[in-house]
């Protein structure tokens, strides 16, 4: 069992005691963040990062198991210290660990040492943040709830959260009791440093992806009548796909269809046999997700056929909607206001059309995902997520650790 910190008493820890532990932990947590940032790893290859996590948990005396979700996921457990707490389901806190295939341009002294890979989404900050939570909670003598810490791989398109659920991260089969609620955070460059926010219901979109090949008949560019022009057909299809949002979806419902990649042809005087394009569809409700897919297939196949071509459609069902349980979101707002103050807690007015595999946890237990501001006060702009200049702000760790600790310690 983790040792009690000498400043901890036998009663519920005071805010001052928790903040003192956080301040004590920050230099080490920041160093871990920089180390992880300098050694980024792509989805399901987070072997070094997983070792860093396990080594720190071992140093803290926190019970944990590794090797989950394909080999790099880590599950940790910090028990409750009261009889009534031991009978409760665990509060789970989640962090993701993977990086992105982007060449870093931050200029930071701890910049990526691996060419073409960087932590452009701030998962290094999320992981370090949760290790800071582990450090603080492990030193408290009074913990009213059992706490499960989830360090998952492959958020960036690999559905590592889904695999952590399948491997028993929530059901108590691997470690600790069954999870009764779960919280996760994401650094957010649009929010000022220290501000936090969330909303009940959909917070992030479902993310479906597609790859299309339009196959026609190749011909000399001077004799287009001898072709079945895959270029013209693709152009018509890509334009028509925008009618899903403008003419098939109600104006009050959100849907995004984006074609982001297109390729075809090798010579200026040859109409190619085929054209390939790819992109993503984002939706916020099951009904719109189903409608969008149906209209996508009908438009793509219909136009291709009308122009003498064939559409080969590869559809990849991505992450579901990240849906915040209303009761857990109410808990987040109550705890956040008590922890950081009313003025720093924002109600996110509308969902974002980005996606998150935190969504899978919410299919099993009541969940709330929230955002953590990283943009320094007085600075109008900050590099966006997935940009080569993005770097998680170390100064956001204090708020992130404190709020996650408060959620773990909440007795409601």
Describe this structure in words.
- It is built from 10 helices and 16 strands.
- The two termini are 24 Å apart.
- The chain has helices at residues 15-38, 47-60, 83-86, 123-138, 160-166, 230-241, 243-248, 286-306, 326-340, 397-409; strands spanning 63-68, 73-78, 90-96, 147-152, 179-192, 196-198, 201-204, 206-215, 219-220, 255-263, 270-271, 274-283, 310-316, 322-324, 345-347, 367-375.
- Helix content is 32%, strand content 25%.
- The longest helix has 24 residues, at 15-38.
- It has 412 residues and is of the alpha/beta class.
- The strands form 4 sheets. An 8-stranded mixed sheet has the order 1-2-4-3-5-16-6-15, sandwiched between helices. Strands 10-12-8-13 form a 4-stranded antiparallel sheet.
- Strand 1 (63-68) and strand 2 (73-78) form a beta hairpin.
- Residues 1-11 have low confidence and may be disordered.
